[in-house]
Design a protein that fits this description.
Helix 1 packs parallel to helix 4 and helix 4 packs antiparallel against helix 5. 59% of the residues lie in helices and 6% in strands. The chain has 504 residues and is mainly alpha-helical.
């Protein structure tokens, strides 16, 4: 029911828009074109799922990514309704509900691909099955997960904590770096449209779409807006994109032929050298890599500093893979002959993005890792004051003595930090009594505990004295035996979230 409801509502919206466009355009009798209208609506619904189709001259694969939002929202809504009406005990069963929606939805998409076939247009049924399943699984599963989290009171942070620290930080870095690239591409596109605003207005006037046609023209361009943003990202990365066979729009130069009369295409620069203002966009991939590298190391700093650039570069390579996937779905042929090559080259975009974003992320990750770990290492022990002065004592006790470490003892290096420990010279009964009273509270139970501590300390003193008698006087001990008497402490670093807060 959830799959059928989502498909039915999506078809209803598409049929409504198709009928509005038919009314606004010159047409024959409605009874003679009803079949064509319905087939066109079904074809538009399939286009909204990024299903390509074949025409006599070639293949149409340059499809608007914005139309995927419509079935995605409807499936998300159906997923939440499914979670409210069915008993799903645990969050780990979300994939079952997602599969329950995706299976029937893919079958509906494949059936509609068969019904929409005509003599001139033939949708790809395998692609309809795959894309219908993928979109329904992701959007429907996300709706189910969101509703369950709301019903059970689970926050998004709790789900992230289930992931290992390194995987979580790497995922955050990749998503943020990719989002930075897309945001920069959107800004670049808007600036280009603002600079070419007179050409946009002139192209709109030449089309003379009218009121209804103008609204449909706006919807059409908004649907292709995500494709244009991806094209702008590819321009900022360097490889650029093509608008036909033998054309190129890149920072190295612009060479295009005649373009369709679409107002959005007025943002494409004229033939010749690329505008100087657009060259500022070349900084975008390095900025995205720096942000991604910092966030990759923020929640999971590396003790070994050499590992930080490696994880930063992994973040950049993963971002390059995502950019290649976006370039693949954003471009495609638009028929045959001249428009058979439209869009960026996925492998070029992925390779350049991996190198540019990866290098910037590696450098930023190393710097961020040094910054986050520098405060976690304990400082070196203070040397003795000049003149043999001692630090002031606290609470009537002498302060710690400054000990000079041998040259072979590492201090403040790596995960373990070695520091000297001063021997506690308190073998007097007065010290034992004060410590026992400070540990206990003066009650009967405290007196028993104090007596037990005194017996332990007495036994330890006797053991030390017996060892001294066996080894002989101090002037007969060897130098190596004296070095073994030096006491050192080892401090291990921990992440900030693992350190217990001080208790009052």
């Amino acid at each position: 029911m959830a799959a059928a409801t989502s498909a039915g509502l999506g078809l209803a919206v598409i049929v409504t828009l198709t009928v509005i466009g038919w009314v606004a355009a010159p047409h024959d009798a409605f009874s003679e074109e009803i079949v064509d209208i319905l087939q066109g609506a079904v074809l538009a619904w399939l286009v909204g799922h990024h299903v390509s189709f074949s025409v006599p001259d070639g293949q149409i694969a340059l499809l608007p990514l914005g139309l995927v939002l419509l079935p995605g929202l409807l499936l998300y809504r159906s997923g939440r309704k499914l979670a409210r009406s069915c008993a799903i005990p645990r969050l780990r069963y979300v994939y079952r509900a997602a599969l329950a929606i995706a299976g029937p939805y893919a079958a509906i998409a494949g059936t509609l691909a068969l019904l929409a076939r005509t003599e001139t247009v033939e949708p790809s049924m395998p692609r309809a099955l795959v894309m219908g399943f993928v979109i329904a699984f992701l959007a429907g599963g996300l709706g189910v997960l969101r509703q369950l989290m709301r019903d059970k009171g689970v926050a998004a942070r709790d789900l992230l904590r289930l992931m290992p620290a390194r995987s979580r930080s790497l995922a955050v870095g990749v998503l943020v770096s990719t989002s930075t690239l897309l945001l920069g591409g959107l800004v670049l596109l808007l600036v280009a449209l603002a600079v070419s605003l007179p050409e946009v207005v002139e192209a709109t006037r030449d089309l003379r779409p009218g009121l209804v046609g103008g609204a449909l023209l706006v919807v059409f361009q908004v649907a292709y807006l995500p494709n244009a943003v991806v094209f702008a990202v590819c321009y900022a990365l360097g490889p650029g994109f093509a608008l036909g066979a033998g054309t190129a729009v890149a920072p190295t130069g612009v060479s295009v032929g005649a373009l369709p009369m679409l107002p959005m295409l007025a943002a494409v620069p004229d033939n010749g050298a690329a505008p100087v203002l657009s060259l500022v966009a070349l900084v975008l991939p390095f900025l995205a890599g720096a942000v991604g590298g910092v966030l990759t190391q923020r929640s999971a700093p590396d003790v070994v500093s050499e590992a930080a650039p490696l994880w930063g570069f992994v973040c950049g390579v993963t971002t390059g893979i995502l950019c290649a996937a976006l370039a693949e779905v954003a471009g495609g042929p638009l028929g045959g002959e001249r428009l058979s090559e439209v869009g960026p080259s996925p492998w070029q975009v992925g390779l350049v993005a991996a190198l540019e974003v990866g290098v910037a992320a590696a450098v930023a990750a190393w710097a961020a890792n040094w910054w986050y770990t520098r405060g976690l290492r304990p400082a070196r022990p203070r040397s003795a004051r000049p003149g043999g002065e001692r630090a002031p004592a606290s609470a009537g006790r002498p302060g710690p003595r400054a000990v000079r470490l041998p040259s072979h003892v590492p201090v403040g290096e790596g995960l373990a930090t070695v520091t000297p420990l001063r021997r506690r010279e308190r073998d007097t009964p007065e010290d034992d009594r004060q410590d026992a009273e400070g540990t206990t509270g003066g009650s009967a139970e405290g007196e028993e505990r104090a007596e037990s501590l005194r017996r332990q300390w007495a036994r330890r003193r006797e053991e030390r004295r017996s060892r001294r008698g066996v080894r002989g006087p101090w002037w007969r001990r060897g130098a190596a035996e004296e070095e073994t008497e030096e006491l050192y402490g080892i401090t291990y670093e921990a992440e900030p979230g693992e350190v217990d807060a001080p208790r009052g």
